[in-house]
Amino acid sequence: MNIFTERGTFGHTSQFKKDSISPKFSNLKIDKNVPMPKSFKRMRIMDHIKLLEIGDSVIISKDYINNVRQAINQYRKRSNECDFSYISRREGNDYRIWKTAK
Known about the structure:
By secondary structure, the protein is of the alpha+beta class. It is built from 2 helices and 5 strands; from the N terminus they run ββαβαββ. A hairpin with a 2-residue loop joins strand 4 and strand 5. It is elongated, with a radius of gyration of 23 Å.
C-alpha cells in the first residue's frame, strides 16, 4: 500500500492512500517520455524577426512589446547563430523595433 503526502489548505499535511483516488481521476493515463512542444508564441515572433534584414523595422503594439523583447533576448542568449541586435523606440502608442548589426 502506497501512502502519499498532500499539502491541504492552511498548510496542513494530510495523507491518503493511492487506492482512494477520486473517481473522476480514476481513468487518468500517465504518459512518459513525451517531448514538450516549443513555445508557439515565441517561435512566431522570432520567425518574423529573422525575416527582417539589417536596417529593417517593424511596428509592435505596446501590449506585446515586452513579449517581443523577451523573445529576442532569449534567442540572442541561446543561439550561436545570432548575428544581430535590435533597437526599439516608442512611436505614439506603439513601438518600432529595428534589426541592427551585432
